[in-house]
C-alpha cells in the first residue's frame, strides 16, 4: 500500500509540473497573440500603402518607357524605350532616381546624372513598388557604407581593390574616363557612399555587377573609404590638372613648355642676328 501511495503521489507531481508548463506556454502565447498581430498588421498596412504610392508615381512618371507594369516598353518604331525593371530590386531604383539619372531626358548611349526629380520619400515609394514585383538587391543599410571608423589597414585594402577593379574605367584618381561607342565612366568625386555601394551592387549601364559573392560587403566598404579619401585630397603642389595622369601633364609640357623653349630660341637667334648686323655696320 505504501508503494502504491508513493507511486500515485509521484504521478500527481509529474502531471502537476506538466500542467504548470502548459499553463505558462498558454499565457505567453496569449500575450503574444494579443500584441503581435496589431504590430504586424500595422507594418503590413504601412508597407502596402508605400507600395501603392510608388505604383501611382510609377504609372505617371515611368510607365511611358518601362511599361505600365515595369515589363519594359518600346517606342513607336519598335525600339526598346526602357528595359524591364522586374527583379532589379530597390537598390537599382534608389541609385537611378536618387542620382537624377531617372527619369531620363531622352534615350542615348549614356544617361547623365542631373538634379533629382523626386524627393527622398517619393524615391523610397518607387523603390518599394519595384521591389514588390520580384526579389532583387535591397537598399543597403547605413552600416554597409559608413566609413567613419575605417582603419588605415582597411583604407589601404580599399586602394588595392580600387586599383584592381575600378581604375580601368574610372581613372586611378576616380575622375572618370572615356569608353567605346560614346559612353564614359563618370567621375566619382561627387558620388555619395550610399550610391557608390548601390552602383557596385546593381551595375548601372555599362558597369559590371560586383555582387556580395564577387566583392564582400567589407570590401565594398573599403573601396568606398578609399574613394572618400580621394574626394578629400588637396593639391599641395598647385594646379592638379584634373588628376588625369600623364596625358594632361604631357599636354601641358608640350603646349606650355615647348612653346616657351621655342620662344626663347627665337629670341636668342634674333638677338644674335642683330649683334652680327651691328658689328658688320661698324666695319
TrEMBL record:
It is found in: Cell membrane. It is a multi-pass membrane protein. Heme c 1 binds at residues 62, 65-66. GO terms for cellular component: plasma membrane. It is an enzyme of class 7 (translocase). Its main location: membrane. It catalyses: a quinol + 2 Fe(III)-[cytochrome c](out) = a quinone + 2 Fe(II)-[cytochrome c](out) + 2 H(+)(out). Heme c 2 binds at residues 166, 169-170. The chain crosses the membrane at residues 251-270. Binds 2 heme c groups covalently per subunit. Residues 49-134, 153-231 form the Cytochrome c domain. Residues 1-33 form the signal peptide. Pfam families: Cytochrom_C (PF00034), Cytochrome_CBB3 (PF13442). Its EC number is 7.1.1.8. The keyword Electron transport applies. GO terms for molecular function: heme binding; iron ion binding; quinol-cytochrome-c reductase activity. Keywords: Cell membrane, Electron transport, Heme, Iron, Membrane, Metal-binding, Repeat, Respiratory chain, Signal, Translocase, Transmembrane, Transmembrane helix, Transport. This is Cytochrome bc1 complex cytochrome c subunit. It comes from Kribbella amoyensis.
Amino acid at each position: 500500500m505504501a508503494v502504491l501511495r508513493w507511486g500515485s503521489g509521484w504521478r500527481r507531481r509529474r502531471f502537476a509540473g506538466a500542467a504548470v508548463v502548459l499553463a505558462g506556454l498558454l499565457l505567453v502565447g496569449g500575450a503574444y497573440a494579443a500584441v503581435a498581430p496589431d504590430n504586424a498588421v500595422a507594418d503590413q498596412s504601412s508597407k502596402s500603402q508605400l507600395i501603392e504610392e510608388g505604383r501611382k508615381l510609377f504609372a505617371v512618371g515611368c510607365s511611358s518607357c518601362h511599361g505600365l507594369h515595369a515589363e519594359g516598353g518600346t517606342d513607336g518604331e519598335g525600339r526598346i524605350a526602357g528595359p524591364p525593371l522586374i527583379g532589379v530590386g530597390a537598390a537599382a531604383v534608389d541609385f537611378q532616381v536618387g542620382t537624377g539619372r531617372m527619369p531620363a531626358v531622352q534615350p542615348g548611349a549614356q544617361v547623365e546624372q542631373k538634379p533629382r526629380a523626386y524627393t527622398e520619400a517619393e524615391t523610397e515609394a518607387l523603390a518599394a513598388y519595384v521591389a514588390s514585383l520580384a526579389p532583387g538587391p535591397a537598399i543597403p543599410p547605413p552600416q554597409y557604407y559608413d566609413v567613419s571608423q575605417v582603419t588605415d589597414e582597411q583604407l589601404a585594402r580599399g586602394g588595392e581593390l580600387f586599383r584592381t577593379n575600378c581604375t580601368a574605367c574610372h581613372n586611378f584618381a576616380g575622375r572618370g574616363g572615356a569608353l567605346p561607342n560614346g559612353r564614359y565612366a563618370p567621375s566619382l568625386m561627387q558620388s555619395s557612399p550610399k550610391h557608390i555601394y548601390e552602383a557596385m551592387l546593381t551595375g548601372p549601364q555599362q558597369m559590371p555587377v560586383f555582387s556580395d559573392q564577387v566583392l564582400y560587403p567589407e570590401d565594398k566598404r573599403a573601396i568606398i573609404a578609399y574613394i572618400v579619401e580621394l574626394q578629400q585630397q588637396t593639391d599641395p603642389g598647385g594646379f592638379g590638372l584634373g588628376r588625369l595622369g600623364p596625358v594632361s601633364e604631357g599636354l601641358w609640357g608640350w603646349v606650355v613648355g615647348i612653346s616657351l623653349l621655342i620662344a626663347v630660341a627665337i629670341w636668342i637667334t634674333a638677338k644674335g642676328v642683330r649683334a652680327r648686323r651691328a658689328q658688320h655696320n661698324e666695319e
